[in-house]
Amino acid sequence: MRIHEFQAKEILAAHGIPVPPGHVASTPEEARQAAETLGGPVVVKAQIYAGGRGKAGGVKAATSPEGAEKIAGDLLGNPLVTHQTGPNGRVVRRVLIEKATPVKKEIYLGIAVDRSRRAVAVIASPAGGVDIEETASQDPSLISKEWVEPAVGLRPFQAFRLALKMGNDLPTTRKIAGIIVSFYTVFLDCDCLLAEINPLAISADGEVLAIDAKLNLDDNALYRHPEIGELRDPSEEDPLEVEATSYNLNYIKLDGNVGCLVNGAGLAMATMDLIKLAGASPANFLDVGGGATEEMIEKGFHILVDDPDVRAVFINIFGGILRCDILAHGIVAAAKKARIRIPVVVRLEGTSVDEGREILDASGLKFRSASTLREAAAFVAEAVKRATA
Amino acid sequence: MSILIDRDTVALVQGITGNEGRFHTRQMLDYGTRLVGGVTPGKAGETVEGLPVFDTVSDAVAETGADASIIFVPPRFAADAIMEAAEAGIRLVVCLTEGIPTRDMIVAHRYLDLHETQLVGPNTPGLISPDLCKLGVMAGYIHRPGVVGILSRSGTLTYEVVHQLSQTGIGQSTCIGIGGDQIIGLSFDRLLPMFEADPQTQGIILIGEIGGPAEEEAALVIADQVTKPVVAFVAGRTAPPGRRMGHAGAIITGGSGTTAAKIEALRKAGVTVATSPADVGATMAERLS
Hints:
The complex is a heterodimer. By secondary structure, chain A is of the alpha+beta class. Chain A folds into three domains: about 1-20 and about 100-235, 2-Layer Sandwich (D-amino Acid Aminotransferase, Chain A, domain 1), CATH 3.30.470.20; about 20-100, Dna Ligase, domain 1; about 240-389, Succinyl-CoA synthetase domains (Rossmann fold, 3-Layer(aba) Sandwich). Chain A has helices at about 5-15, 30-40, 65-75, 130-140, 155-165, 170-190, 225-230, 240-245, 265-275, 295-305, 325-340, 355-360, 375-389; strands at about 20-25, 40-45, 60, 80, 90, 95-100, 105-115, 120-125, 145-150, 190-205, 210, 215, 250-255, 260, 285, 310-320, 345-350, 365-370. In chain A, helix 10 packs parallel to helix 11 (about 325-340) and helix 11 (about 325-340) packs parallel to helix 12 (about 355-360). In chain A, about 50% of the residues are buried. In chain B, about 35% of the residues lie in helices and about 20% in strands. Chain B has helices at about 20-30, 55-65, 75-85, 100-115, 155-165, 190-195, 215-225, 260-270, 280-289; strands spanning about 10-15, 35-40, 45-50, 50-55, 70, 90-95, 120, 125-130, 135, 145-150, 170-175, 205-210, 230-235, 270-275. In chain B, the strands form two sheets. Chain B has a seven-stranded mixed beta sheet with strand order 3-4-2-1-5-6-7, with helices on both faces. A seven-stranded mixed beta sheet of chain B has the order 9-8-11-10-12-13-14, sandwiched between helices. In chain B, helix 3 (about 75-85) runs parallel beside helix 4 and helix 7 runs parallel beside helix 8. Chain B is globular. The relative contact order of chain B is 0.12. At the A-B interface, helix 9 and helix 13 of A face helix 4 and helix 5 of B.
């Protein structure tokens, strides 16, 4: 789960990490008032989940409250397209008005899960303000890391060692080390999977403060943090994805036109790949769960038929312990209920597969039943050709 | 021969009194797995499918001599169940639970380092050595004993590949789901040398997917230590970056963890990478002939 920058900064501030004074505004009027309260030059920052806002024009400086009002007016209610949003962008519903900080130097701070070492890694670089991936490819020697022993947590000497590598005077180094320790506490307390302060700025008057912050939280641990779960902003998510989540389905909207419904995440990804290899493009990722049940298949169907982009449907179920005849009944019932009118290719495998295929063939629906993955791919390609001809 | 589990494996079921634990206990017993007991705190003295239930893993081990355990415990308690099994001296722990908080798994993994316990999973369908032992939820009947070892980050995609193999008459030595989470126990890199050393195994299939470094790590081990033919498929070439594709570990972050990088690393190590998931079985058949 992601949260907005202003929410992340509230959490940082509560843990003693300095952030610029600021207010959230959802109208140009509120933006002007916020700038008046703060006094002096401000920065207006679009609050959407995607990164790359600066380059896309979503972060702008204003020297007066009227300037802030004008910028907020331009941003609010309009989509902002960044390299992470896709071509349609994300509609800006809120802006963060912050007191502008004269910056002397920028640092990168990140905390992430290192899957190789199965440990948490704290990462710092004196090249702040740019993506860490960019630094990694251009000058990896600028990146320093410390790994955390889970039994004792991040030790102060590790934070100090990282801070030293940022190349500042001793008082500043001590401040940075303190922020690193607090930031690790945030990571731990909120069950983050990824946390970044980029940049952590050293201001002209020697203050160290978080100019931008990102916290990605572990969905599996949200039960420990109900207050963080409430920060979820459904307006940042695709409406079909929100609906799917309410059904407990794993669904991700994509830009193709072949809808697919699969049991199991790996097989679902492989099915998308197969659609691509067949010369078409998947409209979605949809995993109804490894042990597919009639109920989950029916719910999955709802999502597929609600998507106006879908021209053909590919159902790929490997039954396993559940019998295919029961699954076939479920598919037929769901398709009839959903009044599906587009071509449907079904690939069913597992126990009692022959009975299952007979049920599909006898359903009177426009099903095309494939016996192997290869055959299914060919049927899908044909169906798409006809549907888009 | 096989790896990790065989006819001599004697196992417990942690979380045996839950619906899933109960159902799959029956399924595993029917397959011939030597299950000797179950553990659910507070339910000692009950029986499930004729097996005695214990309060703690240490009680169960003392009474039954079990050396393996399969875990069907809800996510909040699963990391603790893994650690309890390790502390009780269980040699192999298979954790099926999906949705364990990552922080809990990091702690559990460190705890395992202090013990002689190997972990498969979590978020795995388990593992099977056909006709010898099944510690998992996969349908036993699709498997045939044979010469191909399978390592996979997926569940149903593995069934698909097993099915393709069985249809070409090729059986399996052991099939292992390594788990779909970010933090897992045994990964490709630790399991590949076991298959290399296993006399029954003549070829290895590796089923990877986007996210994380497991396939790249596997490539290093293959180049260095594996002489048997390896065939791979990496799922997710159409997956958008930054999105978690069902599995907690299946995510492309900051340009790393893409199929392109993984396929290149594997090919450099001499692995035959199938482009289509429909061709994995046939590709293995070619490599073996």
